[in-house]
Structures are given as C-alpha cells and as structure tokens.
Write a structure and sequence with these properties.
single chain, alpha/beta
Length: 368
C-alpha cells in the first residue's frame, strides 16, 4: 500500500517504512509514533546524558535482573536496537561477566562509541570483547567463545555484514512482513544449526517514569535438524514481535527500507531494449513535435528522501539523481507541452530529468 500524499518527502519515506509492519498506517499513525519517539529521546537525554537519573539504582536493578536470569550468562543472547540498548554490554560487565558483542563493521563503529560513552557515564569499568564479522576467522572465534560459556550478544536488526546491505538485498532470504518482503541474512541461522548452543533473548525498554523494564525471553524453538532458513525465520519472528510491542522505542527503522526486497538488483533491472525505445520516443518528440506533445506524470510517482524516485503504484524505485518532489508539482497540476515545460524549467531540466522520467516509463507522452 503506497503512502498517502504528504508535503514532506522525508515523512513519505518514513511512512512507507512504517507500512512494512502496518500496511494500514496513516500519517496520524506516524505522528503518534514520532511523538512517542521524542518522549523516549527526552528520557535518554535526561537520565543518561544529563545525569538526572539515579544511576546507582539503575545499576542495582540491572544487576538484580541479570542475577535472577542466569540463563542469560552464557550462550547466544539476542537483542535489538530497542530502548537504551547500548547499556546492555556495560551492565553485563557490572555483574562481573565477560560478554562478547557480535556485529558488523558499520554497527561496531556506531554502537561501540555509544556503549563506551554510557559505560563511562555510569561509572562502569572493563570492556566487552567486540567481535566484528568482517574480520577473518571470526566464526571460529565466535564458536570458541560459546564453548567457553561466555554470553555472546547479537543485535539481530543489524542485518548486514560482508558486502553491506546491497549483499543482504541481493543474496538474503526473503522474509515476509505484513506490508512488504524483506531480505535477511542467514549466517546466524547457519551457525546455530551447527553450534547447538542455548539461545536466549534480552530486551530493555524505557518506562514513562524513566526507569527501565528488563525482560528475558527466547525465540520460538525450531525442530532438531532445522535448516538455516527455518531458524532465521524464527529469529526474525521474535525480532518483529518485539518491535510491534514498542515501535516508538525501536531505532533501526532504516533497516526496513535498506533491506526491502524491492531494492534488490534484479528488481531494479529494466529491459534495456524497452529503455532505449522509450528514450528514442522522447527525443523524437522533443526534436520534431515539442509544441504538440504533452507530458503527463503517472499517478503515484513521488520523490522521497533520502533521494529515492518512487513509483508507488508499480512498486519500482530508482535513484532520484537530484530530482526533487517539488519539481514534479507542475506535472501533477497540468500536462504541459514539451515547449511549455522547457520555458518553465529550462532546457537542462527537460533534457535531463524529463528525459529520464520518460525513459523509466514514469510519464506519458500524449500527442495533442
């Protein structure tokens, strides 16, 4: 379901992401989500950055929780970018445990800085072992850590690794959400199929009063001998069930867009002969009949931030290449001739953006 028209390209992109989880989400749904997100950001600012919270109480509650859930002290511990998630590694250290954090290079560069800053703010010493998937032989190191009985934290919604998100989209497993298909990595599923280690889950959420809600759980068990695809689906079923509980506290919404199957290379490919045919037709009209050929934007064509030219009805997406949504308003309001369009927007716009819109099949050329 395409997002409703909204004057802000940024919000159209955000709404499209939200509709992957909730196809019926509206601009009002998005506004409520953003309001909740601002409230969580304000709690994080006051409690963690400005020091207004009782850090000793926060640490005591986390220690009590982890002490009561000894299953979280070893094996694979799933988590996600929910609430003040970057506190988790440091609070493991506070209990005297030696956690390992498994993540890709981009997530390492982002999460480690936050985790280190919050660890210092809470007065915690020590440092977790950061195990980056881009390093050679990381899988062997990971298996050794699991066999040693150490807790290995995995933030599942990173969904990246070697080759980045492009490789996830092109080679990942198709995972179906209510509003869209994603592509997800199966490496963790392959590892779990061989490691036979315990798998647990740990989440932390903000309460309205600024205290933290810690919860332990686990994904739905998979049958013995399950293949990596089956295991991966169970893992992501757990992940998105947690997101639906507190969507305003999830900070990895960008993953939904970046991992969408509609952005996979094979979905973006267009028949080169068809592209050539459309371009020749446009250039012929521009050269020989500019006063007689009108250009009409097809319904559902929009530009979203960050730089996406979207055909929301055909579910096709392209790089905007400098085109702005406001520039399409003229084509939405009227169907000018090519001569009129050139007088209003300039020769370079017509020969660049209008030509590309025609080549991609996003406008109709109508002989007057």
């Amino acid at each position: 379901m395409p997002p409703a028209h909204n004057p802000s390209p940024r919000r159209r992109w955000d709404l499209w992401n939200l509709q992957a989880l909730d196809p019926d989400a509206s601009a009002a749904t998005l506004a409520a989500l953003e309001s909740g997100r601002r409230a969580c950001d304000e709690l994080a600012r006051r409690i963690l950055r400005d020091g207004e919270g009782d850090h000793s109480q926060l640490r005591a509650e986390a220690r009590a929780f982890l002490s009561a859930h000894r299953e979280l002290h070893r094996g694979l511990v799933l988590s996600l970018h929910l609430g003040p998630y970057s506190l988790i590694p440091g609070l493991y250290l506070d209990l005297g445990l030696s956690p390992v954090v498994l993540l890709d290079r981009a997530a390492h560069d982002r999460l480690r800085a936050d985790a280190d800053r919050q660890r210092r703010a809470l007065g915690l010493s020590g440092e977790p072992e950061w195990l980056v998937t881009d390093r050679p032989a990381f899988a062997g190191r990971l298996l050794r850590c699991l066999r040693e009985g150490r807790p290995v934290l995995v933030f599942l919604d990173g969904n990246s690794g070697e080759g980045g998100m492009a490789a996830t989209r092109d080679r990942g497993l198709t995972y179906r959400l209510p509003g869209r298909d994603l592509r997800v990595r199966t490496g963790l599923g392959r590892l779990l199929g061989h490691a036979h280690c315990p798998v647990h889950a740990l989440t932390v959420r903000w309460r309205p009063d600024g205290s933290l809600l810690w919860e332990a759980g686990a994904p739905e068990p998979w049958p013995a001998g399950a293949d990596p695809a089956t295991i991966t689906v169970r893992l992501y079923d757990w992940l998105f069930a947690e997101v639906r509980r507190s969507p305003e506290q999830w900070s990895a919404w960008g993953m939904l867009g970046a991992a969408s199957a509609c952005f996979a290379s094979e979905r973006l490919a267009v028949d080169p002969l068809e592209l050539q045919r459309r371009e020749i037709r446009f250039l012929d009209a521009l050269a020989h009949r500019p006063d007689r050929v009108r250009i009409a934007l097809r319904a559902g064509v929009e530009v979203w931030e960050p730089g996406i030219l979207a055909d929301t009805r055909g579910e096709a997406f392209y790089a905007a290449e400098g085109l702005r949504d406001a520039s399409l308003d003229l084509l939405r309001a009227a169907s000018p001739t090519l001569t009129e369009l050139r007088a209003l927007c300039g020769r370079r716009w017509v020969e660049g953006h209008a030509r590309r819109l025609a080549t991609l099949g996003l406008v109709d050329l109508v002989v007057a």
